[in-house]
Amino acid sequence: MRRATLLLLLAVFGYSAEAQFTLIPQAGIENPVTKISYNDLRSFQPVVSLQPQVSICAEYKFKNGVGIFTGAGTSRSAVSYNFLDPETGMKAYQASTGNTQLQLQAGLKYSTKPIYFNKQVSHNRSSKTPCGMNRSCGNHTGSTCCHRAPGCSQKTRAQNKGMYISMQPLAGFAFMPSNQPDLVTKSSGMGYTYNAGNIKKALLAGVGFELGYRHTKYVTLSINYFKGLGNEKTTVNSFSGTKAILTTLNSRISGWNTSIGLPISLVKRPFSRGKRSPECREQNRVRCGYWKMFQ
Fold it and tell me: pLDDT by residue (tens digit) across 235-260?
């Protein structure tokens, strides 16, 4: 199962590179909140800690701003809860952060239009000189832009300059392909280990901020919230003398993480040439026919 999942992830990354996705290596911190309920009593949090987290994300954005993303990262949200006697396990225990696990992510992301820190600048100029590039017309080479009376007027679009910021809300799911059991019974009556927060699926929601200059992406900052799906109970059957003891363990997990990423854009922007007005194209056609008459 784990091998098939890794192969699927590599295939997704390969398709992403071919489809000119954007790769974003990320590094940050994770704050998991894993709570345990012992015998259906009030839940408590045995371990409080911030954990480092690294991940890589591949995303593709459509023209309307909606995009999809896939990723893989590390997570240490599980907690190893060790106790010797099930009768006193709620008070006499030792807890520590669990092992690092692989977390796969996928979902939808929306990117707002860039908000530039500098105001837009527009130019309006007029000139009697040709305002286009030279173009061959038969054996004659002349200007491709028409001469309007009294002059050639040209307007340039408002151009965005300087730094910009774009917001990127997202929603998706996380999957952890872990085969770790929920309960481990130690040999020779040395106690039990309960792997709290050993979830397989989680819900993701968050927002990201993209900083760049003109069309170049520089850095991303994301803040996400996650909540585990599923709340299965684990039972421990033990004996105290001749008395049978049934202990119920339950856990739930949620938390947040934040990370900084360096986007690597694989999109090649084609060279765009300015469009001439219909009047300019018509006058160029007439002038071209005029010169051919004298060839």
Answer: 888 877 778 888 999 999 999 999 99
Mean pLDDT (whole number) for 261-278: 66
Q: Specify which residues 70 forms β-bridges with.
A: 58, 106
**CA-CA distance, 118 to 116, in Å (whole number)?**
5
Of the candidates 260, 266, 279, 248, the one whose C-alpha atom is nearest the C-alpha of residue 36 is: 248
- Do residues 148 and 8 both lie within one domain? no
Q: Are residues 86 and 222 in the same domain?
A: yes
Phi, psi of 274 (to 5 degrees): -65, 145
Tell me the Ramachandran region of residue 264: left when phi exceeds 0, alpha when psi lies from -120 to 50, beta otherwise.
beta
DSSP 47: -
- pTM, two decimal places: 0.68
What is the distance between the alpha carbons of residues 258 and 238, in angstroms, rounded to a whole number?
42
Domain that holds residue 128: 121-159
Of 129, 159, 189, which residue constitutes the final position of a domain? 159
Cβ atoms of 226 and 201 within 8 Å: the answer is: no
Shared domain check, 47 and 111 = yes
SS3 120: coil
- 147 and 14 belong to one structural domain: no
